[in-house]
Amino acid sequence: MSKLYVVGIGPGSYEEMTIRAAKVLSSCQLIVGYTVYNDLVRPHFPDKEYYETPMTEEVERCRYALNRAKEGMLTALICSGDAGIYGLAGLAYELRGAQSAPEIEVVPGLTAAISGAALLGAPLTNDFAVISLSDLLTPWDTIEKRLEAASKGDFCVALYNPGSKKRKDHLKRACHIMLQNKPPETVCGVVRNIGREGQQLDIMTLGDLYDFQADMLTTVFIGNAHTVNLNHHMVTQRGYRDV
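Above: the chain's sequence. Below: its structure in token form.
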């Protein structure tokens, strides 16, 4: 039976890839991915055939993977983090449509909200929201509504894609919305290059985050009313000690 695996490879380092994901990549003949993602896995799976496209060519990448899998080649379509969280699992199903071939199996991985939170401490121990600030696929008006709702609900928030060369002010605009419902002393954290060379992290207040310059490799965490800075660790208190 023809089969396509859609694999989340985690934040980037081989040590943070799941055992299941590593086994699937070992078993596949072809690995299809964005150029950067292929470069991350190639040293660990050097004997595989690779196909890659640059950013914004996700549809071409998915179609190629589906077609090769349908032809009988055991294929893995890789995504950073988790394949179903801002990944290509949904697109693979959409492009396959009503057809039954190839079979699709989604292999989950560590998304940046989880791996970044672990580096900062424990910022997501209670209800939280994950919001992307990229308006490439989602209108900014919709993003603003989601930011406002999350801030009004006092959710902890993980922000993906907080900045780029074309979107230098999106994090500032997001902070402006958050500051309407959260105090400026709210504890926040940032992590860049999670699980990769040059990894950096810092903890600051929401007021300081307003002027922080983030890029596409940065994940931002905004705490709630119960988030504290404990010895430079971002910790959201769930209330265990109050029970």
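The first helix runs from residue 19 to 27.
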